[in-house]
User: Fold this.
Amino acid sequence: MSPTTPTRPSRGTGRLTAYQRRMRAIGALHHRRYAVQLTVAALVVVAAVRHQRESSSGAPSVDALCPFGAVESLWTWVTTDRLLPKIHPSTLIVGLGLLISVIVAGNAFCGWICPFGTVQDLLHRAKRVLHLPELRVPPRLDRALRWLRFVSLATILLLSAGTVTLWFAGFDPYLTLFSLHWLFEPDLATMWPALLVLALVLGASLLVERAWCRYLCPLGGVLSALGHLSILRVRRSPSACTGCNLCVKPCPVGIDVAKPVPSVSTDCIGCLECVASCPTGGALVVSAAIPGIRRRTPTATTGPVPVSIRPRHERDAR
Assistant:
């Protein structure tokens, strides 16, 4: 070999560029997150099949696995002193578990656990593979539409308390899709309203990423309000941020992560796409703080971020 012939470093040697580190971090995050999402969705489908095939044994329906049933039941019990029928005890346990998780880690349930969120993520991936256009909602309209989650929540709670029934069950797109009634007990004459709602929601989610989560999900409204109590949140350091806006584009729910405020909006679903996409060390970190206590805005000079919550590409670069 000529002494002037350049040699390529062997695989696994050499220093990765910032772009390569960022791509590696994003890929690793996707593998972990999709694995969790698909596992939970598979468990829900298995539960639905068991309920349909073994209904006489009392196997709970997938409605019992949705924490929103606990919200409906608690509200009805407080306002009418009666519990909603057909509420499985596991629903209350799931609701309590979700409350604890929100206080600890915000809306991570939406980004890592919720099976209907998983379906919307799969639709978005299919849209990208098929190169379908995406509808961009103007910021002012986007902010207004997000209030529909609270309108939806108030409507469902009032009607559930007034009728003392699981009123929303007849229209809930999660229950319509994952209950598998359309597969095991198809009855278009009675199911068409629920199927129409499901088709409209999935169609909207194909145009706007996670449209249901952004604008209509009643549980999302609850979690967004409770998110102010969460200890772990994604926080931004204005002094470390370079203004590249690479963190904004991958957000599934359209949050302006680069907005100059210390903490990311409570609409955040905890997917960590923004943290993995950030090329600047210390600009976006997941850090803990006690709600209600003023906290110094994190900066690049306030000390090292604990390794366990650093973006993967920052740890690889050390």
Notes: The beta strands are 232-236, 284-288. The chain has 14 helices and two strands. Residues 233-318 form a domain with the Alpha-Beta Plaits fold (CATH 3.30.70). Residues 18-53 form the longest helix (36 residues).
